[in-house]
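fyi for ur records
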Amino acid sequence: MKPIYPRRRDQQGAVLVIALVLMLIASLVGAYMAANVGQDLRMTRNAQEVESAVESADAGVAAVLMLSAAATTNAGDPLRGANVANPFAGIAAADHPLRNLPDGAGTMTVAVARTDEKATCPPLPAEQASSIKIFACDYYDIQSAYNGTAARAQVNQGVWRYVPQ
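which gave:
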């Protein structure tokens, strides 16, 4: 009578070969997944750096608008009169509105450009409207550029300012 299972000496190592092939496939799949995780991390870091750069550039525009709102004299208001190459000139480093940026305020360039002619004003809200045209408008372009170590961004914001005639 012949045994049902072959003897050990009759086996040629087929199970070992199959196991090694499966281990190789699993290792290749694991290495591919690890490489993709690294790529995903780099993409996420780059997206965060770009978002931070855009937020920093937006902070430059917001700082100019806050400086204009807080100005007590026309001389201190960046949205009065001529072009302003550096609206933060004369502000101490400890009081600089952009001092808390990731790379510091030195990475920012902010400028205010005024159009040369009086522009047509956008309509006033109904509660402020008048039949007499007593206002003209100045249009200012606030340009804010952030040049960080990892990313750069530039934001331009247009601002209308009503000026009494």
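The first helix runs from residue 14 to 70. thats all i got for now
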